[in-house]
Design brief:
The chain is of the alpha/beta class. Helices cover 16% and strands 30% of the residues. The protein contains 2 helices and 8 strands. The strands form 2 sheets. The protein has a 4-stranded mixed β-sheet with strand order 1-4-3-2, covered by helices on one side. A 4-stranded mixed β-sheet has the order 5-8-7-6. Strand 3 and strand 4 form a beta hairpin. The longest helix has 11 residues. The protein is globular, with a radius of gyration of 15 Å.
């Protein structure tokens, strides 16, 4: 039924102005205001926009809302830290990150990935991608 329909993603934040500054200024993404709807649009990689919408009673997602593929995860994490972003660190049976906050991938573990939170507490990741 929907195989030819583009997939569009969205997530909520409690402060749209703070989200605009973070995604545009800190992460350097192409963030546009959708004047008619009050939403933000993130444009990247020629794909459909990801929408960010304001929700005053927002509760942060307990899962990753946005993945940002990068060709060099170490450089991306270094740049995030230099921009004042705090990386998440995990130390569980299933998931261990190193001192930089990167869970190193491998044959049976998928790509290397690191997580951080946006100002609304939503989880965002950068992940190693040879095709980025």
């Amino acid at each position: 039924m929907f195989k030819d329909s583009p997939v569009i993603s969205s997530f909520a934040v409690n402060d749209i102005d703070e989200a605009r500054r973070f995604y545009r200024d800190t992460l350097g993404l192409d963030v546009r205001d959708s004047v008619e709807s009050g939403l933000l649009e993130i444009h990247a990689g020629g794909r459909p926009a990801v929408f960010i919408y304001p929700k005053p009673d927002h509760e942060p997602a307990g899962f990753t809302v946005l993945n940002l593929p990068v060709s060099d995860i170490d450089a991306a994490v270094d740049a995030l830290i230099a921009a004042g972003v705090s990386m998440e660190h995990y130390d569980t049976e299933a998931l261990r990150s190193d001192g930089k906050g990167i869970a190193r991938g491998g044959e049976d573990r998928g790509p290397s990935i690191a997580w951080f939170k946006d100002p609304a507490g939503n989880i965002v990741s950068v992940l190693q991608s040879d095709g980025s």
